[in-house]
Specification:
Strand order of the largest sheet: 1-2-4-3-5-16-6-15
Largest sheet: 8 strands, mixed
Shape: elongated
Number of strands: 16
Number of domains: 2
Radius of gyration: 24 Å
Bound molecules: nickel (II) ion
Mean pLDDT: 97
CATH topology of the largest domain: Aminopeptidase
Order of helices and strands: HHHEEEHEHHEEEEEHEEEHEEHEHEH
Helix content: 25-40%
Number of helices: 11
CATH architecture of the largest domain: 3-Layer(aba) Sandwich
Distance between the termini: 17 Å
Low-confidence stretches: none
CATH superfamily of the largest domain: Zn peptidases
Oligomer: single chain
């Protein structure tokens, strides 16, 4: 069975919802309008239960199949939040708020899952229960973690969980996926180097914090190249370097640095943290300075369960055909908040083609509404194939 015909009929109405969300982007957990709209539509379309306020502003809708002999419960997840970017697409339905933009297509993800929820509530052609999960704060806020910590999996008895994200560069009507580690862990670090400030003409009376910090920057880059096994993957990027002195003749007392560490395996993640602390502390000590390190373990590695990934690829082939589904694509060193849900339950995360547009997080990024019937069909067929009705 290819694309579901019902999604041709609802294409215009779901597109209208998507464009309304696009005009009204909301950041992080502050998805109040979006969450209210989602909950209203789910109720209007006859979901059996709609619960708001999970993980602060997350929403879960429950749709029971016309049979429930399987006892299966699956979760389908979309993200709802926008980015602090000023939109430059020139679209008629561009963001009405300067400095906020749906530049990652989460408006489209929300709309596609809403479209699937409408269809599943109408047809209920499955044996089990579908939970549609709408999460806030995917962009760095850990909304997925908050929903899991709020007991969502236990409360709704969710056994397996699936995610989807659009991908520019992959043609519309195509899917791509990989099993195992797919998105990297994403940790954060703050370093404060303390030396001894003083007159720039008298360095011998000071401990030059800027020089110490500069040595730290260089030494940190030896971790990936010299400590990590070269056939494994890790990234360390130092993204901010700020001395306390804003003038020409003062050696600063402090230098603050910030950055991020990414890895595709928990053991490499541990090694990166350990090496970072050793290199920073040791380099500072070499020069008689001290360093204070705050290392924040943020997103874990996002791991696609192998069996669930084979199943997700089968569903995608059912919707778009054999040749439009690529398996075994390379992993991504970006982080993905869905990792928290995949730590809690087995499942899989798939990429859906968004064609030729600027990359996500760019001010000219556009979500192609032609994707909506394909994405909604994937969700609907996933439920129908995972839990076939007799
Ligand atoms: Ni995104």
């Amino acid at each position: 069975m290819p694309m579901i015909n019902r999604f041709a009929e609802t294409h215009a109405s779901i597109t209208a919802i998507r464009r309304d969300l696009h005009e009204n982007p909301e950041l992080q957990f502050d998805t109040r309008r979006t969450s209210a709209l989602v909950a209203e539509k789910l109720r209007e379309w006859g979901c059996d239960e709609v619960k708001e306020g999970i993980g602060r502003t997350g929403v879960v809708g429950v749709i029971r199949g016309r049979q429930n002999t399987s006892g299966k419960v699956i979760g389908l997840r979309a993200d709802m939040d926008a980015l602090p970017i000023s939109e430059a697409t020139g679209l008629a339905y561009a963001s009405r708020t300067d400095g906020k933009m749906h530049a990652c297509g989460h408006d489209g993800h929300t709309a596609m899952l809403l479209g699937a929820a409408q269809y599943l509530a109408e047809t209920r052609n499955f044996d089990g229960t579908v939970c549609v999960i709408f999460q806030p704060a995917e962009e760095g806020g850990g909304g997925g973690r908050e929903m899991v910590n709020d007991g969502m999996m236990e409360e709704f008895g969710i056994q397996k969980v699936y995610g989807m994200h659009n991908m520019p560069g992959l043609p519309v009507g195509h899917f791509a996926i990989r099993e195992g580690a797919f998105f990297a862990s994403a940790d954060l670090f703050d370093i404060r180097v303390t030396g001894k400030g003083g007159h720039a003409a008298k360095p011998h009376d000071c401990i030059d914090t800027t020089l110490v910090a500069a040595h730290i920057v260089v030494a940190l880059q030896s971790i990936v190249s010299r400590n990590v096994d070269p056939i494994r993957n890790a990234v360390l990027s130092l993204t901010s370097f700020e001395t306390e002195s804003k003038t020409h003749n003062v050696i600063p007392q402090h230098v603050d640095m910030h950055g991020t560490v990414r890895a595709l395996e928990p053991a490499i993640r541990d090694q990166m943290e350990e090496c970072l602390k050793a290199v920073v502390t040791g380099t500072a000590a070499t020069f008689g300075a001290t360093a204070h390190i705050k290392y924040i373990r943020n997103y874990p590695v996002m791991v696609n369960d192998p069996a669930e990934t084979r199943f997700a690829a089968e569903v995608a082939r059912d919707v778009v055909g054999e040749t439009a589904v690529t398996e075994g694509i390379p992993p991504v060193m970006g982080g993905e908040d869905f990792a928290f849900m995949l730590e809690a339950r087995p499942g899989s995360y798939i990429l859906i083609g968004n064609g030729d547009t600027a990359m996500v997080h760019h001010p000219e990024y556009k979500f192609d509404d032609e994707m909506i019937p394909t994405g909604a069909s994937y969700w609907a067929r996933l439920a129908e194939i995972a839990m076939p009705a007799a």
